[in-house]
């Protein structure tokens, strides 16, 4: 089964231009295309009857980059739909963030500073077994992912995510713009779905 690019209905976002978002969605669509291309090529090589094990292994090595690139961008764009909505105090997510970090605003302050040099992602993960959150830095799209832990937020720190609107030294303003644009109803539902 092939993956299909999702369509995101995005409102006007303060601090993220339409041009910036259109470019970024185009890149996301490229990841979806390459996931399909990689899996198709692996299948074709496997069916030839000849030994293409080394070539298939190389393609498989690329899959983590492309597949995570696809899924992380979906996590990124989805909570921009519907426009900014606050996290309500009666949600399970609010309660759990408050328990671990003291308050929602204290958590937000910490998350906004999760950053590192180089391309990658800042994730808010949750471990339902230990009932605790993790802030994860994922280099590229795949290095540093915590196995099995769902991501509630995926904040793209690649320069392509902001370079039309901000210089690299203004990245903190991009992070603020993204966090202020979030529809927390979407993220609260993600948390509820973890169980
Ligand atoms: Fe991106």
Unreliable segments of 5+ consecutive residues: none
SSE pattern: HHHHEEEHH
User: What is Rg?
Assistant: 18 Å
Classified in CATH, the superfamily of the largest domain is Iron/manganese superoxide dismutase, C-terminal domain
- Provide the list of bound ligands, each named once: fe (ii) ion
Task: Give the overall form.
Answer: globular
SS-derived structural category: mainly alpha
The residue fraction in helices comes out at: 40-55%
Largest β-sheet summary:
3 strands, antiparallel
Rounded average pLDDT: 95
Ends distance:
28 Å
| CATH architecture descriptor text of the largest domain | 3-Layer(bab) Sandwich
* Structural domain count: 2
CATH third-tier fold name of the largest domain: minor pseudopilin epsh fold
Number of strands: 3
How many distinct helices?
6
* Text of the CATH class of the largest domain: Alpha Beta
Share of β-strand residues: 5-15%
Strand order, main sheet: write it out: 2-1-3
Explain what this protein looks like in three dimensions.
This protein is mainly alpha-helical and 195 residues long. The chain has two domains: 18-80; 92-194, Iron/manganese superoxide dismutase, C-terminal domain (minor pseudopilin epsh fold). It is 48% helix and 11% strand. It contains six helices and three strands, in the order ααααβββαα. The chain has helices spanning 18-46, 53-77, 92-101, 104-112, 171-180, 184-194, and strands spanning 120-127, 132-139, 151-156. A three-stranded antiparallel sheet has the order 2-1-3. A hairpin with a 4-residue loop joins β1 (120-127) and β2 (132-139). The chain is globular. It starts with 17 loop residues before the first helix and ends with a helix. Bound molecules: fe (ii) ion. Residues 24, 27, 73, 156, 158, 160-161 line the site of fe (ii) ion (FE2).
């Amino acid at each position: 089964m092939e993956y299909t690019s999702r369509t995101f209905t995005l409102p006007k976002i303060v601090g993220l231009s339409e041009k910036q978002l259109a470019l970024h969605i185009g890149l996301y669509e490229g990841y979806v295309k390459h996931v399909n291309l990689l899996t198709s090529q692996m299948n074709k090589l496997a069916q030839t009857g000849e030994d293409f094990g080394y070539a298939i292994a190389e393609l498989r090595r690329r899959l983590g980059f492309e597949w995570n690139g696809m899924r992380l961008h979906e996590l990124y764009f989805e909570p921009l739909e519907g426009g900014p909505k606050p996290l309500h105090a009666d949600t399970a997510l609010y309660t759990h963030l408050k328990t671990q970090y003291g308050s929602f605003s204290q958590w937000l302050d910490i998350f906004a500073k999760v950053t590192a040099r180089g391309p990658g992602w800042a994730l808010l993960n949750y471990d339902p077994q230990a009932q605790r959150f993790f802030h994860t830095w994922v280099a590229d799209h795949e290095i540093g992912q915590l196995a099995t832990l769902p991501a509630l937020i995926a904040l793209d720190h690649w320069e392509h995510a902001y370079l039309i609107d901000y210089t690299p030294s203004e990245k903190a303003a991009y992070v603020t713009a993204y966090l202020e644009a979030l529809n927390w109803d979407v993220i609260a539902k993600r948390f509820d779905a973890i169980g």
